[in-house]
Design brief:
Blueprint: E1 12-16, H1 24-34, E2 38-43, H2 49-58, E3 64-66, H3 72-86, E4 89-94, H4 108-111, H5 114-135, E5 139-149, H6 161-181, E6 186-193, H7 207-217, H8 226-236, E7 248-251, H9 255-263, H10 266-271
Parallel strand pairs: 1-2, 1-4, 2-3, 4-5, 5-6, 6-7
Length: about 270
């Protein structure tokens, strides 16, 4: 049964960060399109233009716009173009994360650099803040913005390193924007998805081990699917979630509730 079919019908939603069809962002966009949303897309640079135009044509034929999220002028131009196309914005999907390869391999004390820290936080965290700063005056009442995070923001995950720090920053920004934009009818939330086989994930050293560990330790005894994240995103972008803001919603099969439990011995638990 399709529970989301009426939830995002006619909503104008900007999807930022979709770079390939093997991604969580693609699964979210496909879900939104199937359930009646009107979509627009941004892409990083000209090398993604052909793919993005093809993907957009298959998912509602929405507009596409180049946007370098490290450039404030590009962000402003993206929002200006979106407003020109639609008037008001009903939703934003931020699916952006980048760290130099040398920052997400090995122990953090050996690989972290000032430049790597700066780049990772700028692209993975500030880009969401920059989007909301420009977009919020043009967002409709009862609108919603979501971003994607990972439990590496809360627990030390091997090789995740500076990306975990950036995701923690991203989650904090969700709470701060939610606190001030709520009175304007704008909700802000994040989705913390379990590990999924995507092109982006393949760049993380030890990802196969991470995936196996997750599947073995979730209460549902399996890894999640990208479509399940898409369902959660559709819910958060719909009026059905009108009372939810400032939250990180875990779509990880319950892994987040087992992290401490599976690592504690009985004597440790009893000594607390």
């Amino acid at each position: 049964m399709n529970y989301t079919s009426y939830m995002v019908e006619g909503k104008k939603i900007l999807v930022v960060g979709l770079a390939n069809k093997y991604s969580i962002a693609a699964a979210i966009a496909e879900n939104l399109h199937k359930n009646g949303a009107i979509l627009g897309f941004s892409y990083q640079n000209e090398s993604f233009q052909k793919f993005m135009n093809e993907f957009a044509s298959q998912n509602g034929k929405g507009f596409t716009k180049i946007c370098d999220l490290s450039n404030d002028r590009d962000i402003k131009e993206l929002i200006t173009a979106t407003v020109k196309e639609w008037g008001k914005i009903d939703g934003i999907v931020h699916s952006v994360g980048f760290a130099p390869a040398d920052q997400i391999s090995g122990n953090i004390e050996d690989c972290i650099t000032r430049e790597g820290f700066k780049i990772t936080h700028d692209i993975s965290s500030y880009s969401f803040s920059g989007l909301l700063k420009e977009a919020h005056p043009h967002m409709a009442e009862n609108s919603s913005a979501i971003t994607l995070t990972y439990i590496g923001s809360q627990e030390a995950t091997p090789n995740y390193n500076v990306m975990g720090m950036a995701k923690a920053s991203l989650e904090a920004s969700v709470r701060y924007f939610a606190a001030t934009l709520g009175a304007k009818g704008i909700r802000v939330n994040s989705i913390s998805a379990g590990p999924i086989k995507t092109l982006a994930a393949s760049g993380i050293k030890g990802f196969k081990t991470m995936l196996s560990k997750h599947g073995e330790n979730t209460p549902i005894a399996r890894n999640i699917k990208a479509t399940e994240v898409g369902n959660a995103a559709a819910f958060l972008l719909s009026d059905m979630s009108s009372g939810i803001t400032g939250q990180t919603i875990y779509v990880d099969g319950g892994y987040n509730i087992t992290v401490s439990y599976t690592h504690l011995t009985l004597p440790t638990i009893c000594s607390v």
